[in-house]
TrEMBL record:
<keyword id="KW-0969">Cilium</keyword>
<protein>
    <submittedName>
        <fullName>Flagellar biosynthesis protein FlgL</fullName>
    </submittedName>
</protein>
<keyword id="KW-0966">Cell projection</keyword>
<keyword id="KW-0282">Flagellum</keyword>
<dbReference type="GO" id="GO:0009288">
    <property type="term" value="C:bacterial-type flagellum"/>
</dbReference>
<dbReference type="InterPro" id="IPR001492">
    <property type="entry name" value="Flagellin"/>
</dbReference>
<dbReference type="GO" id="GO:0005198">
    <property type="term" value="F:structural molecule activity"/>
</dbReference>
Length: 535
């Protein structure tokens, strides 16, 4: 009879040992990575749910990354907006409190402040985050605002900047004789005075081929308290027949042979290029010396033989002289300031910018022409603002399955453009210390700058933009809080399917190690057995 070896009899023990070691290795892996299995196949019946839960957790992680990036961009943009807010307040305060003292460059301390703030504002609008320009709309790879120096001074001799555009407009508005392109003249009777735009001061002028220009003082109305005097409101002079372009207008007063009394007034109201109005109010006076803003009532000569009565004709001549002087003062002050504001609007608020057509301030300066990039600086290079394409919608991020936030900004939005424009104009204007109207011009400019930087109900403000961005951040925070809770629930579900209990796994490993040790000992003893020992 054959006797089998020990190995044959104990092969099943070896198989058991291998099985135990495999279980230990599997449990050790579970203990190391915290999962039941490294594949979904090992997750059992919960594998489908685990796949869905893991996809949800991955989506939440992706949304979290998106929100982090958006919050970073908004934070950088908010830093710029906060500084722009401060700039607006600084320049407004400087304009409101600025005096008429000029330095050797022809500017006040307030204008110097505006100059520094303008350069700072351009830097703020060219802010970047991770190589992305934040104020360019969708054109995120393009700096939205041209350099501050080029905006102010142009790019070479051939390409005009803001200062040149302001200068051209000033010459076209004020005119060669400093009368705001108006003519003060005697009217149709010896006791009448009239003022007209361009050639309209002469009611018998031959109509020209050109209509009224957009430049200079535009007469609006006339009124008087002089008894017996009559006024002519602005009337096209000479009249034209359609379809010819309307001629300029003129207005006037006729004393009709009457003498004004002490304190009687004549008021001439004008429209200025920036949309404001100014009124010249002249008061009849017999005082010596004549007070400011007055015209002399002719006293006649009662001591002459024969006595010379007071003359309405001479009084009308005095009114004409006083009106001419007042118009010249108005043109050199308020008109000059309004012209600068309008030039800034033409430069910043139009694409392409508008310039004076023809040779200012000569008669050829009768209209405006669109500048080109070959002759004029274009201040904004980003995506143009559009009423039908809101700026916020130029940057959209999905932060949840059904939620997106909008956080785009364009540097040419109304609030940003208006402030940049106003600060730039304030910083660009210079005034000669020898200009007799210089102090009044600066005062008129200060007044307009302060008014343009004030909050206007219904107009966009920088705070409105900040509120929009704050709304986007609030939406992201709410989404993030909700996703944190969702992720916790999903992770709990995943842990119940894929996770392991470390204490339980460790206990199983210890039990298997004990069993493995016993198996090793048994196997060792079996291999040491022999027939001799058995007998």
């Amino acid at each position: 009879m054959a006797i089998d070896g020990v190995s044959g009899r104990t092969s099943y023990i070896g198989t058991g040992i291998v099985n135990i070691r495999s279980q230990i290795e599997s449990l050790t892996a579970q203990l190391a990575n915290g999962r039941v299995s490294t594949t979904y196949a090992g997750d059992g019946t919960g594998r489908s749910l685990a796949i869905g839960m893991r996809a949800q957790v991955a989506n939440i992680a992706s949304y979290s990354d998106t929100m982090t990036n958006i919050n970073t961009r908004i934070s950088v943009a908010n830093l710029s907006l906060q500084r722009l807010n401060a700039i607006g307040s600084e320049v407004k305060g400087a304009a409101a409190s600025a005096g008429a003292t000029l330095d050797n460059t022809g500017q006040s301390a307030g204008q110097k402040t505006a100059g520094l703030d303008f350069f700072d504002a351009v830097d703020m609008l060219n802010a970047q985050s991770s190589g992305r320009y934040l104020f360019s709309g969708r054109a995120t790879d393009t700096a939205p605002v041209t350099s501050a120096d080029q905006i102010m001074n142009g790019n070479g001799a051939a390409i005009a900047g803001l200062k040149q555009v302001i200068s051209e407009r000033h010459d076209a508005d004020v005119g060669t004789n400093g009368m705001g392109r108006t003519i003060v003249s005697a009217g149709a009777t010896p006791t009448s005075v009239q003022i007209g735009e361009d050639f309209a001061a002469n009611p018998y002028a031959t109509p020209t081929a050109i209509g009224a220009s957009p430049f200079g003082l535009k007469i609006a109305s006339i009124s008087t308290t002089i008894a017996g005097a009559t006024t002519t409101q602005p009337t096209e002079t000479p009249p034209t027949t359609a379809p010819a372009a309307p001629n300029p207008v003129a207005m006037g007063i006729d004393l009709n042979g009457n003498l004004p009394k002490e304190g009687d007034t004549v008021s001439f109201t004008f429209n200025l290029p920036d949309g404001t109005q100014e009124t010249i109010k002249l008061t009849a006076s017999s005082q010596t010396p004549l007070p400011a803003n007055s015209f002399a009532i002719d006293p006649g000569d009662p001591l002459a033989v024969p006595a010379v009565p007071a003359s309405p004709t001479i009084t009308a001549g005095n009114l004409k002289t006083a009106l001419s002087n007042a118009v010249q003062q108005l043109s050199g002050s308020a008109l000059a300031a309004a012209s600068a504001i309008k030039a800034g609007d033409d430069f910043f608020n139009n694409t392409p910018p508008l310039r004076v057509a023809g040779s200012a301030p000569f008669g050829a300066a009768t209209g405006q022409v669109a500048g080109t990039k070959a002759d004029t600086v274009f201040w904004y290079n980003g995506e143009p603002d559009s009423p039908t394409d809101p700026a916020r919608g130029t940057a959209i991020g999905r932060v949840d399955d059904a939620i997106t936030v909008q956080y785009g900004i364009r540097a040419d939005e109304q609030a940003l453009r208006k402030q940049l424009q106003t600060v730039a104009v304030f910083a660009a204007v210079t005034t000669s210390a020898s200009d007799p109207n210089g102090a009044n011009k600066l005062a008129a400019l200060n007044q307009r700058v302060a008014a343009n930087l004030a909050v206007v109900p219904g107009e966009q403000t920088i705070q409105n933009i900040q509120a929009d961005l704050a709304g986007a951040q609030a939406s992201m925070k709410a989404s993030g809080d909700r996703q944190t809770q969702t992720k916790a629930l999903a992770q709990t579900m995943l842990d119940s399917i894929e996770g392991v209990n470390n204490d339980e796994v460790a206990t199983k490993i210890l039990a298997l190690q004990t069993s493995l040790q016993a198996s090793y000992q048994l196997t060792s003893q079996l291999y040491q057995m022999s027939l001799v020992k058995f007998l």
